[in-house]
Amino acid sequence: MPNPAPSSRTVAVLAAGGIVTTLVQTAVIPLLPALPRLTRSAPVDVGWVVTITLLTGAVATPLLGRAGDMYGKRRMLLFALGSLTAGSLLCGLTSDLGPLLVGRGLQGVGAAVIPLSISILRGVVPPERTGSAVALMSSTVGIGAALGLPLAALLVQYTDWHAMFWATTVLSAAVLVLAWRTVRELPSRSPGRFDIPGALGLSAGLVCLLLAISQGGDWGWTSSRTLGLTGAALLVLALWGRRQWGAPHPLVDLRLAARPAVLLPHAAALLAGFAFYANSLVTAQLVQAPRATGYGLGLSMVAAGLCLVPSGVIMVLCAPLSARVSAARGAKVTLALGTAVIAAGYVLRFADSRQLWAVITGAAVVSVGTALAYSALPMLVMRAVPLEQTAAANGLNVLMRTIGQAFCSAAVASVLASHTRAFSSTVTAPTLDGYRTGFAMAGTVALLACATACLIPRRARQPHPTESETSARRPQHLPTPGLPQPADPAA
Question: Could you tell me which of 311, 327, 304 has the C-alpha nearest to residue 365?
């Protein structure tokens, strides 16, 4: 039997990379109210500190996924971690908004770390442990977000604001060195040339789409800029899709992505991303609302961030449970169960959001469902694609989650803005009904994700394994439920 130690070290390093990546994405949130003063910039311009990370992350995820399949997943993983480190360092060195935005853009490239890591796990972890390793990797999204807010709030409150970026620089650099020493390159490679026109077309389409979604609330949903960017996105992506369909070596294999076994998990990822994000988006805001609102608890940013820590810990603890459910019933059942649990969590949040224990309990239930759903999605994708397309397929799945989160952010912001009123001469905030409307909306989307999961074929049509995929599988490994296995040469 193979020695499990090397693969265990690889899982630990990759999981650490996932936690640091998510932590970097969320750590800037406590800093946003003070950034206009600290950078001598207008509040509307400071919003780009979050937007630029969303844009670069959305573009980098599918592009680095495809490049990883062609040129090496380890190489692209190190590139993403290097970009994360360089971006954190640049942010720590500047107090001007321009360089800060460049640094945040470089940090956004780190979004590709998680899908690349999941793809690496398929090749280095014994098949009988793949499910639990993928579940752990998926749960890092929760623990990174849960730790990022309180840690960043503590650093911002008690130290110079640059200390937050210095901390993320050290963490990112440490993971980069560990990954360089621990993670080995996989032998499988996808043939052909990198589709540069396809990469440019996808990037342009995504930038237009996400700009319209993220800035539509400020610009106005019927403004010329929002409508123009939306129309440009639809046109560019339509032309891009037409070219990809007939390309000999496409950036995204749309013929493969159009199969129900691949298309439906991508659709479920978009819906699950929407449903999950509402939980973390409004929890801190809800408990920080002034007591004058009648429902707010008036907590500080540090205390509000600590309210999310139990949810992150629960996601990690649920990783083994998710793997067992997938092994026993299949990843399709895990996804359906997870999205149903998310919907149940929003029922609890709708019922009672006035007491701290009820808020934490509802948020924790949503996190349980998210852990189940997010661990099942990459398993469903991997069972339906060959090994040399794993990174690109997982990158596209994570991209769909990102788009779902962007839609959720815009929808929740619109709902809360329409339910905002003055509670006193000094207190203006969203009403409790506004939050409940957001919870009802997210719960409904979670039920749609559950219905989508039920439509996924139980047995995916197996793609023909390539020679590299066959040789990458060690014969002493046991088969993994739900993943395509090498064909019998004698068949």
Answer: 311
